Amino acid sequence: MAHTNAPTGRSIPLAGRGIRLAFVLPALILLGLFFVLPLISVAREAAAENGAAFGRVLRDPVFWQGVKGSLVLGTLAPAFSVVVGFLVALHLSRLSEGVKALALFAISLPLTFSGLVIAYGFILVFGRSGFVTLLLAKLGADPAVVGGFIFSPVGLGLAYSYYLIPRVVLVMLPVLSNFDRSQIAAARSLGAGNITAHLDVLVPQVMPALITAFCLTSAVAIGAYGTALALVGTQVNILPLVLYSKISDAGSDFPAAAAISLLLMGLCCLVVGVAELFRPRRVV
Amino acid sequence: MSVRFENVSFRYPGGTGGVFDIDLEIATGELLAVIGPSGSGKSTLLKLLSGFAVPDTGRILVDGRDVTRLPPHERALGVVFQSYALFPHMSLWRNVAYPLKVRKIAKKERRARALDALARVGLADFAERAPPSLSGGQQQRVALARALVFSPRALLLDEPLSALDASLRNDLRDEIVRVQRGAGIATLHVTHDQEEALSMGDRVAVMHAGRLVQVAKPRELYDRPLNRTVAAFVGHANLWPGVVEAAGRVGTPLGLLACDTTGFANGAQVTVLARPEAVQPLAELPNASRPNVFYGLVNADRFLGAQRRCDLEVGSGIVRIETTIRTAIHAVSIPPEAIRLLPPDSTASQNPAHTGKPS
């Protein structure tokens, strides 16, 4: 009763706690069933044979090529996405609230598609018989070259950017919308050109958010699997595809696959951890 | 280092707002305050001078040089913003040194000049501090130092005190005027605070609906407003509609008023102006016959500390009184010399005595 009579303060009434727990419970059950239990299962699988799978994986040059490929793809595609997403968010931040909401809706749409759907969409548009490829062929462009682009590592990076850019926009837009634009006007009136004013005044203040956006998209790119599989199969060596090769028709080394998945998750956690270090603590 | 607007007009795309036919000159060392209601065009005037908007017609000259089409960073104007617009990621001295940095001045010199500029606004000891750690008044002083450190051709003040507490505002008014006088440059000060404009400006420009209505010295603007719009906007005012019934006699809702009617024909429609502080409150009707004495009933009485503001119902009109007396009020006397007749409401007066040329 003492709790229920507390006039203010941090203590939560017992009934309130019960209600809160009831709201949280479904999420906890889902987390347990679809994350914690599978993770334990994967960890047990990887630890089988006294962890010999880890040794096998770490000695395998294909694994290290996969790490290298993932790091390159996880750096270049996010870097490109951060630049484009930043410019898009900068433009959106200057629009009226209504237009901004509409544009955000359109920009966020790619996030609702699975990686496989996006890959097939790209094939339909940019593939060897794709709409854009055939259109460019009429202008004299070789369909074999244009159509082959999307199946190359660079084309894969571009396809990744399709769903990385919206993530960058979603991270950057609140920060840019809250930025006091009179600082840019002040810098310009004090003698700085438009680009210099943005580089000197805006960029340093939004840098933590830019780093966060980069790390988040990097983690997504490193862990992405469906798009890569549909577009390049196993021609490009990246960790998710190395993992796939261990459990697909071609192979059945489940302990190695489990070890790779743990290492891949560790890598993604590391990148997200870096993002957390730089996360903006206050609104600019 | 003067500023001149020559027949400048600007209309916002897709709207009716803007400024029209602006002819205005600010002399070297002069502080011109611009006041007007919201949407009157005073901020647009500042945008046009600072280069953030380009006139549709006309020219803007700074120090004799046509800057109409120059981008903001090539105009060499110091601007102080309402929100201070300091860079929170730079220390105070780096903020102040920023205009010197973009002008490629060596670090040692720009630090020395920034510290000197900070000393002039009394903040030399805060040089290494970050802007968010300062009070609003201190931040605005830093903004002032930053706007003046590179010896700009003119200074633009965009409602610099409106974000500050009332007590701080008064101190900073004096400080801004002191620093501006020291710099000796033409200054355009946009504000919605008429008291600020009257106390700081060498001249005050009143804008309405995108046009300059009157530009005059503060006392002249207050004592001799050009029309009803200016009289109503600058200070408090009793404004009654009236008709000149004979030489020296005007019919008003209060009754017949004796005043100077020079310049107005019999039958002319006029606006009668009497400042509330010029109206003399009386405890009772005097025995001796005096002009412009009216009996009335107080229907609002506000105690403001040093002053008292009353509304006295007289006939079918209201007389506003501002007085220091605290006793009962039953009548008022309006001295004829305190009454001024204005033409019926019109904002397009082009009396050459009230254009934007400095005297």
TrEMBL record, chain A:
Pfam hit, one: BPD_transp_1
Major localisation: membrane
Subcellular location: Cell membrane
Origin: domain of life: Bacteria
Residues that span the membrane, as ranges: 21-40, 71-90, 102-124, 144-165, 209-234, 254-278
Keywords assigned: Cell membrane, Membrane, Transmembrane, Transmembrane helix, Transport
InterPro entries linked: MetI-like, MetI-like_sf
PROSITE patterns listed in its UniProt record: ABC_TM1 (PS50928)
Domain ABC transmembrane type-1: 67-275
Matching Gene3D superfamilies: MetI-like (1.10.3720.10)
Record's GO cellular component terms: plasma membrane
Any one GO BP annotation for this protein: transmembrane transport
Keyword flag Transmembrane helix: yes
Membrane topology designation: Multi-pass membrane protein
Family: Belongs to the binding-protein-dependent transport system permease family. CysTW subfamily.
Protein name: ABC transporter permease
Species annotation: Azorhizobium oxalatiphilum
TrEMBL record, chain B:
UniProt keyword Acyltransferase, yes or no: no
Keyword ATP-binding assigned: yes
ABC transporter domain boundaries: 3-234
UniProt KW keywords: ATP-binding, Nucleotide-binding, Transport
GO molecular function per UniProt: ATP binding; ATP hydrolysis activity
GO BP field: quaternary ammonium group transport
Protein's name in the database: ABC transporter ATP-binding protein
Annotated source species: Azorhizobium oxalatiphilum
